[in-house]
Amino acid sequence: MGIILDSYTVYFDLVVSDLEGVIIANGRKNLYNSVGQNVSDSKWFRAAMECTTGEDYGWETAHRSPLVNNELALVYTTAVRKDGETRGKAIGALGIIFRFEALAQTIVEDVPLSKEEEERSRVCIVSDKGLVLADSDHRNLEDTIEFEKRDELFNIKKGFIIDKYNGAECCIGHAVAPGYETYTTGWHSLIIQKL
Q1: 97 & 155 share domain
Q2: C-alpha to C-alpha distance for 46 and 177, rounded to whole angstroms
Q3: Domain count, the chain
């Protein structure tokens, strides 16, 4: 696991748990003391246990993970199977812990806006309920984006509306987030710009 981590800097760590959710190995022992922690209540572990084959995966959205010193992380997961067989019996779970801010925060901060546009815009990635996951205002996991036509806008793949946000008339641009490589999330990318 350590060799993989040396090559892929988007990961905080890789962890393996047993069937009870106790971490039995991790790749960055020098940085994270996760061996022995019980993750059986985590969404990612439960998702791994629901995988029916080695081709299935689950995930836990952006959250502060105790496995990596409460850094903002995203975990993709699958069950570890006996003898590595695709349909083998589950014997544990693999958690791939992504550096969420390095991925998502970079995206919202690198949107090409003019200086004038930056001063009146907010760029963010949000969950389907509007929870802010990455944000040009740096309010990750601390804010929810609410506006009257949010659900209407979120039901289209890409577009914009004019609506009130925080008491101001705004143009709100939207696109369903494409995900990362083969992983999909159902998140929404927003640019909220005061008119």
Answers
A1: no
A2: 24
A3: 2
Q: How many CA atoms lie within 13 A of 131 on its CB side?
A: 10
Show the domain range for 138: 111-194
For the stretch 56-110, pLDDT in tens is: 999 999 999 999 999 999 999 999 999 988 999 999 999 999 999 888 888 899 9
- Please, are residues 41 and 125 in contact by the beta-carbon 8 Å criterion? no
- Both 124 and 91 in a single domain? no
In which residue are the tokens 């544990």 written? 92
What is the signed CA dihedral for 8, 13, 17, 21, rounded to 10 degrees? Answer: -130
Share the mean pLDDT of the chain. Answer: 92
**Length of the chain as a residue count:** 195
State whether 82 and 147 are in the same domain: no
Tokens of 130: 């509007």
The domain that contains 131 carries what CATH number? 3.30.450.20
